[in-house]
Design brief:
5-stranded antiparallel β-sheet, alpha+beta, 16 strands, about 325 residues, 7 helices
């Protein structure tokens, strides 16, 4: 690979960033100098979609000291260090086959510098495209057995970047939520209590007979799909800008099977907080990456994204990852 001359050497000390801090994304050559041959720093990929932010001043949105595990069975939380989310920085999928999941981009602190601090080292003139070949090449895996194109991104590699499980009993995570500015005291307390309740419900299913279980051992919000056989569908042909109302919880549960799925799309406790609310359609979604396999999934029935509708971690250990919710049209009703 072409050698780059730069005065930058990766900074390993922590910046101890908090929500609201202003930072500047380092330049391209500085970031390239911090990456290994896989285009990663501490197993976290720097992706093609992040290049557009190099040199920009941005605000810390959340501190990524923990992330939810959406890859392994059982999920849970995993510990991460020296990483943050920046306001407005979501993946646009251009380097990953047009994936429309719009995940928040994770930034290692070594890729950032505090704005207003000493001026970052000046890069010598470099080809602005030097970093792009490395991160683009590593955005793809070897094709699958059937020849299908497979991708690699921060979401597919997140368990390598956050290798340690973070159990609920480690209450220090909630203290850090408050200290970092990720959550208020009451929000963090609720997240802990909901997690404790769900753990007890899980144990009741394992050890108690059905007659002694509280609400049949269901997780908080007590979602239970009622659809029998093939789940129903509805086509509204919603378009960006239209106003919709999320249907009631009972109406949505009637469209879900026992696994809380409608035609393979899940409805979660966090989404139930939106029931009855009015929202505006932001976009339609018909493709997303499977985080477990890296395979691009194409939806037979497009889903809807509503403006500002994200998972806030209220019932999931105050996770700061803020996934964008995908809505089936049958869960929504158009407002004239």
């Amino acid at each position: 690979m072409t050698q780059i001359q730069t005065d930058f050497s990766p900074v390993r000390e922590q910046l101890n960033l908090r929500v609201g801090d202003i930072v500047q994304v380092r330049g391209e050559a500085e970031i390239l100098a911090s990456l290994d041959e896989r285009g990663e720093l501490d197993s976290l990929p720097f992706m093609p979609e992040m290049l557009q932010y190099c040199g920009q001043r941005m605000t810390v949105h959340k501190v990524a000291h923990k992330v939810c595990d959406t890859i392994t069975r059982g999920g849970g939380m995993r510990r991460m260090s020296n990483a943050v989310y920046l306001s407005g920085a979501r993946c646009d999928g251009q380097g990953h086959g047009g994936c429309q999941t719009a995940c928040q981009l994770v930034w290692r602190e070594q890729w950032l510098v505090r704005a207003g601090a000493a001026t970052p080292p000046t890069e010598r003139p470099v080809d602005g495209r030097l970093l792009l070949p490395l991160v683009t090449a590593n955005a793809r895996r070897e094709p699958g057995p059937d020849g299908a194109e497979l991708y690699s991104c921060q979401a597919t590699e997140l368990n390598r970047a956050a290798p340690t499980c973070l159990p609920l009993r480690d209450v220090g995570q909630f203290v850090q939520d408050v200290r970092s500015g990720n959550a208020g005291v009451l929000w963090a307390l609720r997240a802990f209590l909901v997690g404790l309740f769900n753990r007890l419900q899980k144990l009741s299913i394992r050890f108690l007979p059905p007659r002694l279980r509280f609400r049949r051992g269901l997780r908080w919000r007590f979602l239970e799909g009622r659809a029998v056989g093939r789940t129903p569908t509805e086509i509204l042909d919603l378009q960006p800008g239209e106003l919709v109302r999320v249907k009631s919880k009972d109406a949505i549960l009637a469209t879900l099977d026992a696994n809380l799925l409608n035609r393979g799309m899940g409805f979660e406790e966090e989404m139930s907080r939106w029931c009855g609310r009015v929202g505006r359609v932001e976009r339609r979604v018909d493709r997303c990456l499977d985080e477990r396999t890296g395979r691009m999934l194409t939806m037979k029935n497009p889903c809807i994204v509503l403006e500002n509708s994200v998972c806030e971690g209220a019932f999931n250990a105050a996770c700061p990852r803020e996934f964008v919710h995908f809505w089936r049209e049958i869960w929504l009703e158009r407002i004239s």
